[in-house]
Amino acid sequence: MRIRRNLLLYGLFISFVSCSTTSLQPDTTPVQQEDIPDPAYFICAMVETQPEFPGGHEAWLAYVKRYQHYPAEAARAGISGRVFVSFTVAETGQIQDVQVLKGLGYGCDEEAARLVRETPRWKPGTHSGRAERVKFNIPVFFGRGD
Predict the structure, then answer these.
(1) How far apart are CA 36 and CA 54, in angstroms?
(2) C-alpha distances in angstroms, 16 versus 9, 12, 19?
(3) Which of 31, 44, 78, 119 is buried most deeply by CB count within 10 Å?
(4) pTM higher than 0.70 for the full model?
(5) Residues 109-130: pLDDT tens digits?
(6) H/E element holding 84?
(7) Cα 33 from Cα 60, distance rounded (Å)
């Protein structure tokens, strides 16, 4: 019984010594620097005031009605529906990073991206009284009556 207790104590002592000597050695692993993006490229996910097309939603619909060209290929195929476009409204109201999230094909995707890309400057989103870059999604409708 005494030998067993001594072996147990000896094992605990060895474990303690090996752990403490390991932690005393300095870490020589080189630290990797993370790529921290330029603050100019941060995009606010939540803002107090969302970006807005100049004149509001009704003006957006009028803009689309006036400048949208229903692609001939889509007309021949009888395509109608919505193209979802994502873009960033910069602090200046300029439209950037236009991408089609869900398209229809037949030239509708390219037309929806063109419409968004060529809009006048938007009213930027704001947070705590400051204009911020905001990611924005919008549907563009296509149909025979458009």
Answers:
(1) 34
(2) 10, 6, 5
(3) 119
(4) no
(5) 999 999 999 999 999 999 999 9
(6) strand 81-89
(7) 44
